[in-house]
Each structure stands twice: as structure tokens, then as C-alpha cells.
Amino acid sequence: MYPDIMNLGPLTLHSYGLFISIGFAFGIVLALYRASKINMDASLILDMSIYAIISAIVGSRIFYIIVNYPEYLKNPIKVFYIHKGGLVFYGGLIGALATLSYYMIKHKLEYLKVADLLIVCLPLGHFFGRIGCFLNGCCYGAHTTAPTGIIFPNLRDNVMRHPTQLYESAFCLSAFFLLLLIEKYIKKTEGVLFVSYIYMYSAWRFSIEFLRDDDRGAFLLGLSPSQNISLLGFLFASIFLYLIIKNRKSNEIKKGV
């Protein structure tokens, strides 16, 4: 693992923070490009990007602290050790989604159109974030004899484990291209891309959790916190899809009248 890229005197460039920053940068650039295709004001995208970055980091950190609270009760100062890892994707997603939803409603933007525009950028940014996890040695997998198994030096147990971070990076990149294909060949209604990714990631995260072996908080009904949130993700996407279909039928009736 390479948790530290380089040391510049008292400053250390951490791989985890570096790749998360790269992910945000690629996501923002892609969002600006997609916005230009529909003549959307770039300043709105930049504003939302700032809010998304702040809310995603805060949300992901809060969620991590909640599911690992005993560790932080013993040593509260570790709350601020973000550079060593400790961000939960679902916490960041929920935080960013809530903040951006408020922003879009406040500024009277076309919610479904903007949601579709932004959601395609998410897996691309997440792709880089998981590479950062791999280099940092966190979010590792369980023991395996599979040919994809590797040894994580930071764990010092000298056993082969699933590189679940790289599995997820591959998923994120695949999901990114799949969303582009759906947008080009299938999408007929605004909001479809947003719902599609929530379904895709919920299914993926529920499944990959079975291969994880890091500390992910207290299990409920035999499922990890992220698996339980994945189930809620399916429910949320289903309700959202129902509302999209209902709204589309309503608009078709009005046009028919």
C-alpha cells in the first residue's frame, strides 16, 4: 500500500486525500461539460459542486463516526484524522443528495433534469475515490484463495484478501459507461438515469459487503449498516420511479386534453 505519496517537510501528500480530490475534480469537469450541452449556467454547477463537496465530506465522516463511535469516544481528536481514511460513501451520498435537493428547489431548477445530469458524474468520481482506498489500505476484503487476492501489508497478517476497493472501482467505471449508454439509447423520461444508478449501486453495495472484512459497524439482522441502507436505497428508488411514471402519465393526459 502507498498511504503517503510524498513528504514535503512538515507536509505529507496522502494518497487517500489526493485521489478523492482527483475524483471531485473529474466529476466537476464532467458536470460542467454536460451542463454546456443543455445550455445550463456553469455558475450553478460550480455553486452546487462546492455544496456537494462540503456536504459529502461532512456526511461521510459523520456516518463513519456513528458506526464506529466507540473508537472516537476513547480518542475524540481522531474525529479530525480524515487523511487516514474513515469516510462512508453512503453518508456522503445522503448528505450531498439532501443539500443539492434543497439547492435545486430553492433556485427552482428542473429537478429531474439536473439530477440526471449530475448522477452520471458520481460513479466517475467514485472510481478514483476507491483507488485512494486501495492505496490507503482501508475498506479491504475477506480472506480468499481466488487469483485476484492480494496481501495488504498494513494488516501484517500475510494472508491473501479480496481487493474489494479495486472491485468497486471497476464497478464504478462500468456503471459510468452504462449510464451513458442508457442516456443515449434508452432514456425517454427525465429521472431515469438517477433512479438507474441508485438501483445499480444499491445492488452492488449489498453484494460486495459479503466480501468485506474491515470494521463496518454493528450488524442488524445479520446485515451490515451499508447493506441495510442498500435496502432503503431500493425502496427510495422504487418510490422515486413510481412518482416519475405517475408524473409522466399525468403530463401525457394533460397534453391529450
General description of the model:
It is a single chain. The protein is mostly helical and about 260 residues long. The chain has a domain at about 5-175. It is built from nine helices and four strands; from the N terminus they run E-E-H-H-H-H-H-H-E-E-H-H-H. Strand 3 (about 150) and strand 4 form a beta hairpin. Helix 8 runs antiparallel to helix 9 (about 225-255). The chain is globular and about 70 Å long. The protein starts with a strand and ends with a helix. The relative contact order is 0.11.
Termini separation (Å)?
A: 64 Å
Class of secondary structure makeup = mainly alpha
Largest sheet, order of strands side by side?
1-2
* Beta-strand fraction estimate: 5-15%
Mean of all residue-level pLDDT scores? 91
Q: Please, how many helices? A: 9
Order of SSEs: EEHHHHHHEEHHH
- Specify the biggest β-sheet: 2 strands, antiparallel
Radius of gyration: 20 Å
Strand count: 4
Categorize the overall geometry. Answer: globular
Sequence stretches where pLDDT stays below 50 over 5 or more residues: none
- Into which percent range does the helicity of residues fall? 55-70%
Task: Describe the secondary structure blueprint for this structure.
Layout: E1 4-8, E2 11-14, H1 15-37, H2 42-67, H3 69-74, H4 89-106, H5 111-119, H6 121-136, E3 150-151, E4 160-161, H7 164-185, H8 192-208, H9 225-256
Helix pairs in contact: 1-2, 1-6, 2-4, 5-8, 6-7, 7-8, 8-9
